[in-house]
Write a structure and sequence with these properties.
heterodimer; A: mainly alpha; Butyryl-CoA Dehydrogenase, subunit A, domain 3; about 0% strand; B: mainly alpha; 3 domains; two-stranded antiparallel sheet; 5 helices; 4 strands; about 45% helix
Amino acid sequence: MAVVAAPCSSAPSDEVLLERFAAGERLALEELFGRYRQPAYRAAFRLLGNEPDALDAVQEGFIKALTHLSGFQGRSSFKTWLLRVVSNAALDLGRQRGRRETLSLNAPGADETGDARLLTPDEAASGLERADLRILLDEALATLSEAQRQTFVLHADAGLSYREVADATGVSIGTVMSRLFYARQKLRAHLSQRTTL
Amino acid sequence: MNHDEIHPDTGPSPEQFAAFLDGELDAGARARVVAWLANHPSAAEEIEGQRQVMRVWQASVPAEPSLAAWAGAFDRINAKMRPASSYRPRGIRRTLWLSAGLAAAVLTAVLLTRHFQPGPAITRPPVIASGTEAPDQEPILLASQDDVSVVNLESYWQDDGRVPSIGEGEVSMIVAAPPSPDREP
């Protein structure tokens, strides 16, 4: 018999946890961290390309989000506020640490003679070429504007809806949708030079 | 024009294509996009390419950090937040600052009052001589220290028009009390 984990209806809301956190309850901070560390990390990792930097961005984002709650003030969900701050921290960190320069030194799919080879989608999607694929995707992501990059990772990696991305980035839902379209178009154009996409 | 309708000349908008790929269109709008793509192979190829990009993207989700890495990250966050464990929403913070200021003011007032109160520690012979006497004259005793009380530094007793003083160079404390009727100065 399949066992389906039912969502725990007694789990405290983010608002309750934030109140407990404000009262100095360490467990509330732990619960908030556990709740959102994964989407925050995924977005930060995509924007920075490596684990240590991504963890730094997550840490900085949590600290900033929690110490500047007055900027949040319930206009959006805490999740949206947090992911906005984390993605901004990641973009700032990427600018400081010169992510693009690092990536350009590690162009994927090129052999020792410098000739590029094509990865098929299946090959790319398999774990066998995961490291090369990630670098390839990082390169493609770096071709987007900052606004497109942030919009794309908040939607594709952090799992935010159109509405939530719009709240997080301060633009309309229509702008979010068109940014997503053009981001995918650019990613495809870049990847199609290296794969059979 | 309805947002779900497809422009007859330009085809679906970027927003419509995005919603199509994300499965956000209702059945009718989706069918219209599919029908339009069937007649526009190059656009269909582009959209299929974008779908593959999304598939590859989802297949390359970064691995989670180890539990130790997560624990380290949390500890660093917690350590940064600890100094601000007195963190409160803005309104509460303001109240705390006001309370602290008020407490400091009350404490200062209490200390000042105690400093100027005559008490057992004051052993010099009390009080008090006319302010017009020559400096080398002995002060004339008006009352014992138990019979006087502090008024304040500016509020001199001037019952008979004289200003009582402690003596030359000792005007650190002005005390005053009406002379007892049965006691001569």
